[in-house]
Amino acid sequence: MKCPQCGKATKKAVAKLYHYRESGLDNVYLQDIPVFPCQCGERLVQIQAIDRLHDAIAYHLLKKPSLLTGPEFRFLRKWVGLTANQLATLLGVKTRISVSRWENGKAPITASTDHAMRLLVMRLKEEALHRRMFTEIEIQEQFERIATKPTKSERITITKETIENLPFPPETVA
Predict the structure, then answer these.
(1) Do the strands 156-158 and 43-45 form a parallel or antiparallel pair, or are they unpaired?
(2) pLDDT at 125 over 90
(3) What is the DSSP string of 100-155?
């Protein structure tokens, strides 16, 4: 692979733990990811099956035992392909400004908003996921386990096995 910065050839290496900031979340790490460092200081990262990776992140967020953080809320909104305006309408809030405030941490995400978001996300993905997510994530039990106050985000480490063993199939593009 050639470096887009300087044009020199790079050699393949493996990053044991890659901080995947591109997700918009500061707590996602990928294990054993191919990287291509260059002499000029540039480092290219090879992430395959990015849709499945995002499925894995969403799966972890939907199962997490505390309220969603603003960035997690934004990740799920984008994962299902909604604009802030569309989400506001679906959640029954007056404007996208409420969604923006939740996502930016300027307004707290309440338990009812968190639960509504998780249910909406699962409902929007329900058909594509062949209802398997609902059986894997026991809704009522999960909501009872969710802490009523947000906590510090825990590290999410995604491995190749995590992606391969998701309880739902990848979406097929028609």
Answers:
(1) unpaired
(2) no
(3) HHHHTTSS---HHHHHHHHHHHHHHHHTTTTTHHHHHS-HHHHHHHS-SS--PPPP
